[in-house]
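Hello Y.,

Per our agreement to keep a running log of every chain we model this quarter, I'm adding this entry. I've kept the format consistent with earlier entries: sequence first, then predicted structure.
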Amino acid sequence: MKIAILKIILWPKKNVLPPRIISFLPDKINIITGESATGKSSLTAIIDYCLGSGKCAIPVGLIRNVTEWFGLHVKLANTEMICARKNPGDQQTITDLYWIEGLNLEVPNRIKKNGRVEDLKNRLNQIAQLPHLELSGDESVGYASRPSFRDMAAFNYQPQHIVANPYTLFFKADTTEHREKLRAIFPLVLGAINATTLAKQRELKDITKEYEKLKRELNARLDAAKAWEAEIESYYLQAKALGLLPDSPYPDMTWNLDRFVHELLPLPDNVKNLDIPEIKEGTSEEAVTQLTELLGEEDSLARQIGSVRQRLSKLDQLSVSVNEYGSTLTEQKDRISGLGWLERKLQSQHKCPVCCAVHEKENEQLGVLQKLAHELSVLSNSVAQAPSKLEQELADLRNELRSLEQKISKTRKKRQFLESQTEELSEQRQRVRQVYLFVGRVEQALENLSASKNVENLKDRVEKLHIRIKELQNELDPQAQRERERSAIESVSSRIHDYARDLKLEHAAENVRLNIRELSLQFTSLSGRTDFLWEVGSGQNWVGYHVACLLALHEHFIDLSNSPVPRFLVIDQPSQVYFPEAWPSLDEAPCEKSADIDGVHRIFEALSKFLESLPYPFQIIVTEHAGSITWRGLVNIHVVENWREGYDDFLIPKTWIDCETTT
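Predicted structure for the entry above:
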């Protein structure tokens, strides 16, 4: 992928200040040298963040405190692009993006959001001509999802904590997610597979699913045809039993499936011509309505009968009570019947006829008895008249009860008649329904039999898919893919060996090989022992083999047509293992020859030789603590800035810091 960084741009939070711009050349080794804590290592994080990183790794502190936007001005194959991302502040990342694409772009003094990071990623994926398909043809994609421009960052950055790390060879390969994705994309970036291969893998995946589906359908149809053969004979015998095939003969042993089918085919037309009783529409509904009304009337009559019977029972009880009461009154009346005789004897004289006592005044007790006798006589006469009235009312209630019983008997007869009529209609309807359902089943069975037997087109489709699957499997021969991958690894490993020899690294005489499974380098001695990079001592070897591996890979990428890996490499502090302590001046050679300076010089010499060997432009950016003594006399060197006191501004200009401290 043709891309080079022309400028790194920082827009300040203070609008009165101009942007900080650091310019680079697209086909040189661009060196920023300087003291510690000047912002050199932050450049790697800024470039990665501006090109769509999921998290912002720009160090917190001064840089984030004074910067509002971080941006890049990049050169593409045919255009230029300025892309910038806003300072996330207290967040890990935000999606605010400014970007513009065109020719001869100028850096604006102020910018504002006009897009999302996802828009930039999609555009960079398009420029890199990355396929829109998954890396795996399996159902479970996992880390083998669609390759992205972001996946290529593993080959573009060697930050300070990676460049001399014996356990991690590639950028971000120290996390499981990036490590697994890197393993998945290696065949693509090495050229063992390409977009055409992925398209064929996807086609194979899709048509295999279709083939399996049609194969199941074909087998189901063939199995159904066998099952329907047994059903057809049964249906024919049922049709004869129902009288639906009166003119068809009974089958014998000579009949085959086609004969049964032939005899059953006229069945639907025969049913239409049969004398099946027609049930008038609404008949059942009318009968149900009448039945409901009769049930309501019957319930009403039953309630009335219950009420009359209750009243009749109460009147019977009352009549008995009246008779008993009348008898009691008669007995009481008889007991005081002698009161009249006593009254007559006392009217003419005041002498008691019993004890012969003489009373001058009227007897008060006799008056009370006379009053009671009179009331008893009146009550006795009234009770004597009551039975005749009760008998009359009882007779009326009995007549009413007989009338209601006659009505409910008549209603029940009507109900029973309608119920029997409704049941008959229901049975008749059920018989007609069974006939039509049977005919429907027969028709469906004949259709299914025809469909299950008509599988020639389906067989042709299955056969064509089978042939195409075989073709794709041959074209996607895993053995051939493994051979292309092995060949690419051998080519890269051979170049690593050449760079290791130029860098005078230990174990350079051994068989050094890139292991894309372990994402490391392995060394095989003449004795056959295999060691990995983390088993090889010396920081010089670790840095050297990191540089050798990345340069060898980029040589291979450029040899490929349309490689999706961007053509730039950012290396931070490759001299770190050589200069644990600084001498007074790194721009002047020491009195005595220094092995450390020679070691760093060999790194820059290898970078320069790498650029000289390429047929196309390639950009290298090195942020370095060491001074010019380590690259003196080499071609393709471009010193961008010197971040030391008395030379150029650091990453954050002094004017920005002064403006921050005065507010």
